[in-house]
């Protein structure tokens, strides 16, 4: 618990997204080469819009969204729609003239308002796969490897993937890479073993993802409850929310038999804008991975520069659609973030992945 608070304090004001802009050197007498003074942060949201049947709504525009932070209206700085159209996803255009999958990048002006946007290539996501290799996994180990390998191969070419596994300790098998062969090779090299410290390992994975900008997600495959962590799931959820990291959890019926784990899994995924899936067999596990792939492909990535706000703690975010025709749709995204009162941050730890992202030798 203390280590989490210390780390959050180090992250400082950038914990909301880690997107740094307009930084100035802090000309201190000590360590001036690695210290920055942060003037502005850019908060990024990943937003899913669906109808009452769960179909994704594509073709929305920046003016279709209203964002408030602590009830203060915010101006959209950048807007990008997911890569669903390129993948042939199941979506419904919200406007007849809209083309699903187009990316609209709205450049921010000095006043913070939108300028004329232009179509640009859709950027990929950074995806961390966290695989349960504890002793819960003995019976279905090969089937789980197959399901994860198929998921890796199915991801969009623009996405980068890292593969981690966990039992009592976290193993970083493959760093973020577009090379699917390396990732699958990491999946195939895993072996089942010790107790399951899911929350400890998930917290470390969120920490690795925190410095990255843009769309980022952690996909967890768990075959049972956590029985070895010292970190509570609430700490994991808070850090993931504050760093804009989506958590998806795919769990088997073994975890679902534990009501405490079920509630924790659902809570962590929901507050970060992700989903929790409880699969009773390997066929349903593959369906869950396919659903995650489609969800990532349909997310709207929206960012804004926060308006002046005296609140230095938790800031609540609300996203709504404009107009009666769109208000019937459902929105899923994170509901806020914690802003730490800290004016100095370590530039190296924030702007580069650091040694944690290197494959374990």
Structure explained in plain terms:
- This protein is α+β, with helices and mostly antiparallel strands and 361 residues long.
- The protein has two domains: 2-39 and 341-352, no CATH class; 44-111 and 119-336, Rossmann fold, CATH 3.40.50.
- Helices cover 27% and strands 29% of the residues.
- The chain is built from ten helices and 23 strands.
- A six-stranded mixed β-sheet has the order 15-14-13-16-17-18, with helices on both faces.
- The longest helix is centred in the last third of the chain and has 17 residues, at 282-298.
- The chain is globular and about 50 Å long.
Please sum up the structure shown:
With 361 residues, this protein is an alpha+beta fold.
CATH-level-4 superfamily name of the largest domain: von Willebrand factor, type A domain
In angstroms, what separates the terminal alpha carbons?
A: 29 Å
- Domain count: 2
Instruction: State the assembly state of the protein chains.
Output: single chain
What is the gyration radius calculated from CA atoms? Answer: 20 Å
In spatial order, strands of the major sheet run 15-14-13-16-17-18
Class derived from helix and strand content: alpha+beta
Describe the largest sheet.
6 strands, mixed
Helix content percent band: 25-40%
Total number of strands: 23
Q: Give the CATH level 1 class of the largest domain.
A: Alpha Beta
Do you know the CATH topology of the largest domain? Answer: Rossmann fold
Silhouette: globular
């Amino acid at each position: 618990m203390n280590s989490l608070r210390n780390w959050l304090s180090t992250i400082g004001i950038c914990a909301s997204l880690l997107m740094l802009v307009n930084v100035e050197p802090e000309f201190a007498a000590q360590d001036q080469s690695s210290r920055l003074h942060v003037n502005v942060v850019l908060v990024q949201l990943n937003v899913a819009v669906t109808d009452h049947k769960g179909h994704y709504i594509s073709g929305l525009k920046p003016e279709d969204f209203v964002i408030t932070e602590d009830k203060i209206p915010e101006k959209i700085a950048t807007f990008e729609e997911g890569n669903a159209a390129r993948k042939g996803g199941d979506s419904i255009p919200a406007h007849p003239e809209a083309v699903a999958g187009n990316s609209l990048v709205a450049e921010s002006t000095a006043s913070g308002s939108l300028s004329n946007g232009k179509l640009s290539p859709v950027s990929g996501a950074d995806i961390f796969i966290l695989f349960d290799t504890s002793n819960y996994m003995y019976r279905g180990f090969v089937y789980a490897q197959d399901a994860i390998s198929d998921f890796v191969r199915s991801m969009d070419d623009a996405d980068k993937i890292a593969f981690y596994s966990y039992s009592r300790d976290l193993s970083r098998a493959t760093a973020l890479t577009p090379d699917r062969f390396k990732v699958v090779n990491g999946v195939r090299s895993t072996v089942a073993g010790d107790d399951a410290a899911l929350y400890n390992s998930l917290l470390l994975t969120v920490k690795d993802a925190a410095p990255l900008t843009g769309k980022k997600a952690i996909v967890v495959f768990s075959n049972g409850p956590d029985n070895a962590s010292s970190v509570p799931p609430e700490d994991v959820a808070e850090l993931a929310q504050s760093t804009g990291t989506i958590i998806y959890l795919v769990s088997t019926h073994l975890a679902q038999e534990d009501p405490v784990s079920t509630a924790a899994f659902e809570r962590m995924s929901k507050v970060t804008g992700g989903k929790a899936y409880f699969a009773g067999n390997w066929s349903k596990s593959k369906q869950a991975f396919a659903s995650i792939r489609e969800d990532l492909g349909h997310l709207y990535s929206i960012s804004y520069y926060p308006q002046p706000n005296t609140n230095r703690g938790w800031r609540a975010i609300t996203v709504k659609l404009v107009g009666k025709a769109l208000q019937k749709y459902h929105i899923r995204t994170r509901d806020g973030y914690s802003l730490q009162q800290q004016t100095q941050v370590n530039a190296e730890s924030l702007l580069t992945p650091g040694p944690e992202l290197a494959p374990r030798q």
